[in-house]
C-alpha cells in the first residue's frame, strides 16, 4: 500500500512539473521567426459604420517580395485578418475608429504563412495610367522599358523583404512610412485608424503599409 502511494505521489509531482512548464510566464507564446513591412491594397471598401468586431477582412499585396527563408510572395497574394475595433461616430463620441489585425498570408501555390500584422501607414489609391495612350517604343523599335516603380525596395528589413510595385509614378511608398499620407481627416496611432467624420472609410484601391511578425 505504501509502495502504491509512493507511485501515485510521484505521478502527481510529474504532472505538476509539466503543467508548470506549459504555464511558465517566461515562455514565448509563439515562435516569431522574422518581421518586416510591405505594401498592400484594399480590394473591398472597409467602413467602420458597417463592420463589427470579429468581421473578416482581406487585402492583397501591392508588390512581390521574398521572406527570409526565400519564399516568394507574388503581387496580389492575399493577406487576411479581422476587425478588432469598429466604431461609427455617434452622439457623445469625438471620433470614429477602425482597427485591423492581420493573421494569415496566403500564396497562390496554396501555402499559408501565419503572421501577426497591424497597419503602419495609409496612402490614397494609386493613379492609374490612361488606358487610351498607345504603347511607346524605343528608338531601336523594340518595346518600351517598364514604367518606374512607385515603391523602392527596402534594404534593412530582417526578413529579407524586397518589395516592388510597378505603376504610374507618384509619391513613393516607403516601408518605413508611418501614419496617414495624403489623406484628409484621417489619423493613425498605434494601429488604430480614427476620424472626426461619422465613420472611418477606406475605399477600394487605398494602399497601406502593414507591419508584420512572421510566425513559425
Which overall shape is indicated by the principal axes computed on the Cα atoms?
Answer: globular
| Share of helix, binned | under 10%
**How many angstroms separate the termini?**
48 Å
Low-confidence stretches: 7-28, 129-169
Estimate the strand proportion.
35-45%
Major beta sheet summary: 6 strands, antiparallel, barrel
Q: What would the CATH topology be?
A: Lipocalin
What is the C-alpha radius of gyration, as a whole number of Å?
Answer: 24 Å
What is the CATH architecture descriptor? Answer: Beta Barrel
The mean pLDDT is: 75
Strand tally is 13
Tell me the name of the CATH class: Mainly Beta
Total count of helical runs of at least 4 residues: 1
Task: Write out the strand line-up for the largest beta sheet, numbering strands in chain order.
Answer: 1-3-6-7-8-13
Structural class: mainly beta
Q: State the domain count.
A: 1
Question: Helices and strands, in N-to-C order?
Answer: HEEEEEEEEEEEEE
Summarize the structure.
The protein is mainly beta and 216 residues long.
How would you characterize this protein structure?
The protein has 216 residues and is mainly β. The chain has one domain: Lipocalin, CATH 2.40.128. Helix content is 10%, strand content 35%. The protein has one helix and 13 strands, in the order αβββββββββββββ. A six-stranded antiparallel beta barrel has the order 1-3-6-7-8-13. A two-stranded antiparallel ribbon has the order 2-12. Strands 4-5 form a two-stranded antiparallel ribbon. It is globular, with a radius of gyration of 24 Å. About 29% of the residues have low confidence.
